[in-house]
């Protein structure tokens, strides 16, 4: 196989590996959320909102501080993403004006069209990361108001609404972080399709251990959820 043809084979295969993994992850989150970190964390946040809004006057400061920390994390990622986007734009414009093409270190297709696609892909990832983190900040800011509103015990709709908004904010934060993950193999693509393909395979393998839970974690969370439900039932009977 010629050097110029490697990009047309290894790059789609590498993206296909990551795509298949994320399709499997999405299917697992929908069918058995307890097997994934995203599913267990969503249930934990639901229980946290339930505990906070059971007495918002007492737990209001804790709720605002916790959500503020999440907003700061999203702000940091959004700032990083838009900064990297600006730097890449300046680099691409300076490279195109100077007429420099790919380096000799690159083993693969060195045409100007492929180089433009590489930088545009990285730029698109950081733009998606920025937009997702902005949406995450939006939902977190809204939850900071919802969690501190005095709510009666029987008003479950307000609690469910606040928990749903909190999980949406965390979902956008996860999507923004996932865009950062995807940008790494795309960055290695600038050095050739072989590093990009190897990075896609290694990253899918590493993400599997980061996204799934162990049996001990599942048992621990299941036990804590059952204890919380017992406490809620006893409070409702009283």
Automatic annotation (TrEMBL):
TM spans (from-to): 6-27, 71-92, 112-132, 171-188, 194-210
Entry keyword set: Membrane, Transmembrane, Transmembrane helix
UniProt key word Ribosomal protein: no
Pfam families to which the protein is assigned, alphabetical: DUF599 (PF04654)
InterPro entries reported in the protein's UniProt record: DUF599
Keyword set includes Transmembrane: yes
Superkingdom in the source lineage: Eukaryota
Identification of the protein by name: DUF599 domain-containing protein
Organism: Jatropha curcas (Barbados nut)
């Amino acid at each position: 196989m010629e050097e110029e043809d490697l990009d047309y084979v290894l790059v789609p295969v590498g993206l296909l590996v990551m795509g298949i993994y994320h399709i499997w992850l999405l299917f697992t989150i929908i069918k058995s959320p307890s097997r994934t970190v995203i599913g267990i964390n969503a249930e934990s946040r639901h229980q946290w909102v339930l505990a906070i809004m059971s007495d918002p006057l007492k737990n209001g400061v804790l709720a605002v501080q916790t959500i503020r920390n999440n907003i700061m994390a999203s702000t940091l990622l959004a700032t990083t993403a838009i900064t990297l986007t600006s730097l890449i734009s300046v680099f691409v414009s300076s490279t195109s004006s100077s007429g420099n093409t790919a380096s000799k270190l690159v083993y693969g297709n060195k045409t100007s069209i492929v180089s433009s696609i590489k930088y545009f892909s990285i730029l698109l990832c950081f733009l998606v990361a920025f937009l997702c983190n902005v949406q995450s900040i939006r939902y977190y800011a809204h939850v900071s108001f919802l969690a501190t509103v005095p709510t009666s015990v029987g008003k479950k709709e307000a609690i469910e609404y606040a928990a749903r908004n909190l999980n949406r904010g965390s979902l956008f934060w996860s999507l923004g972080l996932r865009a950062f993950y995807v940008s790494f193999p795309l960055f290695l693509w600038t050095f050739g399709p072989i590093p990009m393909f190897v990075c896609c395979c290694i990253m899918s393998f590493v993400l599997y251990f980061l996204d799934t839970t162990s049996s001990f974690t599942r048992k621990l969370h299941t036990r804590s959820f059952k204890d919380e439900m017992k406490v809620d039932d006893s409070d409702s009977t009283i």
